[in-house]
Amino acid sequence: MTAVQIPQAVLSEDMLERFRQRAAGYDRENRFFTEDWEELKQAGYLLMAVPREIGGLGMPLSAICREQQRLAMYAPATALATNMHLYWTGVAADLLRAGDDSCRWMLEEAARGEVFAAGHGESGNDFPLLASSARAERGDGGYTFWGHKIFGSLTPVWTRLGIHAMDTSDPASPRVVHAFMPRDTPGYTIKETWDTLGMRATRSDDTILDGAFVPDQYIARVLPAGLAGADLFVLAIFAWAETLFSNIYIGLAQRALDLAAAGVKKKTSVAMNGRSMAYHPMLQYTIAEMIIELEAIGAHADRVSQDWEMGIDHGGLWPAKLVALKYHCVESAKRVVDLAMDVSGGTGMFKTNELERLYRDVRCGGFHPANSAIVHEIVGKTGLGVLGEEPRWG
Fold first, then answer.
1. CA-to-CA distance for 236 and 253, rounded, in angstroms?
2. H-assigned helices in the chain
3. Minimum mean pLDDT among 102-116, 223-237, 244-258: which range?
4. Which residue from 63, 83, 206, 310 has the fewest beta carbons nearer than 10 Å?
5. What is residue 127's predicted lDDT score, i.e. its pLDDT?
6. What does the mean pLDDT of the chain come to?
7. Torsions phi, psi of 255, nearest 5?
8. Residue 181, H or E segment
9. Where are the domains of the chain?
10. CATH number of the domain at 117-226, please?
11. pLDDT exceeds 80 at position 308
12. Which residues sit opposite 148 in a β-bridge?
């Protein structure tokens, strides 16, 4: 049997330990992870998905998933915010490998230091990427955008914001315009709204589009609204985003398990003559439950990421597979962290305990697309064979 070759890690242990030491302060002060960000850039972390011939590291999805999982064990919010740039460059790299060079410019710009972020979130939009409450109007040489974007990633540092909006100039055939707005574009403002339960260091503030014009060179796609517009560009966004989200929460849950196990071994019981609580049968059972959850989601995430990068033809099952993965990993991660808090004996409640922050951070997983409602809609429709029969545009 040939051993699997795992690429050398991009980030050193010393660097990761610095990230861990800073994470609590970022969270407490609700401050962007500026120092982490500079170190990530210097290490080439932002270029992992960019092909070697364009100046990047040329790493496949599964390898980047491992890196994000590892980073999340030290600094979950740092991993989450960085995720947005990684998935955009991953999408562009996938398209290029498929013979579509329409987004090659994104890879070239990333290699020159441009930072891509996600501006997809919209209040009331439960159909991410495939519909929008924002408006796009065609003009001479590009599109003008109006709308209110929430959960905008990498707010302090992005130079290209990925946005989408509806062009309804033909009411019978609404279109979704996917664009990347340069930072120096007039006609938008950033509203500092980010004061949240968890993942605070991401600084994912709101972006208000009020007549922002994006030229054609930064228009990536104009597609039919709804599932009819789910071409490789859109599907690849879900493939990279969902698998990377999943691995971030796996890493977070693994850290919670490590903290819980270390705590149990240190604690003693007067009812057990001062013996370590590691010998308590119910605590053994709880630790086992955590490990079983992690074994399941780890294998699930590996399989999906490897299938995607190998080009396995799952056809119309891909949307369900991708959203089901993220849902499974986040819900299991929540359970692992909850169990870690149970065995902490109350110490996890204190702000000085890392578990308290992980408990809040893991709650944010359900807010990333796709949320529970759309996950169950996509998976349910797929199982019933009616995925393409949308009531929204039926």
1. 26
2. 13-29, 34-43, 61-74, 76-97, 104-111, 232-266, 281-310, 318-343, 354-363, 372-384
3. 223-237
4. 310
5. 85
6. 95
7. -65, -40
8. strand 175-182
9. 13-113, 117-226, 232-384
10. 2.40.110.10
11. yes
12. 208
